UniProtKB/TrEMBL annotation:
Name used for this protein in its record: Adenosylcobinamide hydrolase
InterPro entries in the cross-refs: AdoCbi_amidolase (IPR002808), CbiZ (IPR052209)
Length: 227
């Protein structure tokens, strides 16, 4: 864990706990979320978001991944958590804070790119483990529409970071991986923001946090696996 990670643990909006094979972001109060995590996708209320590190042998063809994940969460004492699974070493997690006007955003992500895909195409004959799992929290409540818009901004930011860190020789660089997951989290109480697009403070803050965290994670993965 880096000095930045250690400093982060004392800051709102969530505390990070690193205890392999689990990486946990824990809020002091339940937050409203929207995303497509493996557990409880769509809109949900959650206090914990958990990354579960897995190896290829953990998920052989005879293993039900949903049952495997439920058992892992139960063993960690957080059966109701929203959860990601990743083969990326979860010690390689990246956090970034950002703010615009009166809105603060915080992103925690793990970046693995061995399962890279380009939008509009599928590599049907070779699928490898490796994914980008992203949590981003904003400090203001969001309407349903703003949640959806915020999710689109987070995906834009992630994709921009991936494109801008790919090797120059890539003629058609990947735009993500086939198993990426994103969760947006926001407070439950208070008047919700109606919009969260690129022209808004919340869009700027969350986009910057996701971009910076993903950019750092992609560079780290490239250095480790592409040399």
């Amino acid at each position: 864990m880096t000095d930045a990670d250690l400093a982060w643990t004392a800051l709102e909006p969530f505390e990070i706990t690193f205890a392999p094979p689990f990486l946990t972001a824990r809020f002091s109060a339940p937050q409203r979320t929207l995303g497509w995590s493996m557990s409880r996708p769509g809109f949900a209320l959650a206090r914990e978001i958990v990354w579960v590190e897995v190896r290829n042998a953990d998920l052989s063809l005879d293993v039900d991944p949903d049952a495997f994940l439920r058992a892992k969460l139960a063993s960690a004492g957080c059966p109701e958590a929203l959860a990601f699974m990743t083969s990326r070493d979860i010690s390689n997690h990246h956090v970034r804070l950002s703010h615009a006007e009166d809105v603060r955003a915080a992103c925690l992500t793990t970046v693995g790119l061995s399962n890279g895909e380009r939008v509009g195409a599928r590599q049907r004959d070779r699928v490898f483990p490796g994914t980008i799992n992203t949590l981003v929290h904003v400090s203001r409540p969001l309407s349903d529409g703003a949640f959806v818009e915020a999710l689109s901004i987070a995906v834009q930011a992630r994709t921009a970071a991936i494109l801008e860190t790919r090797p120059a020789q890539d003629e058609k660089p990947i735009t993500g991986t086939g198993t990426d997951c994103v969760i947006i989290a926001a407070p439950c109480s208070g008047p919700p923001l109606r919009y969260a697009g690129l022209h808004t403070a919340v869009g700027e803050a969350l986009g910057h946090a996701v971009y910076e965290a993903t950019h750092e994670g992609a560079l780290a993965w490239n250095a480790e696996f592409l040399g």
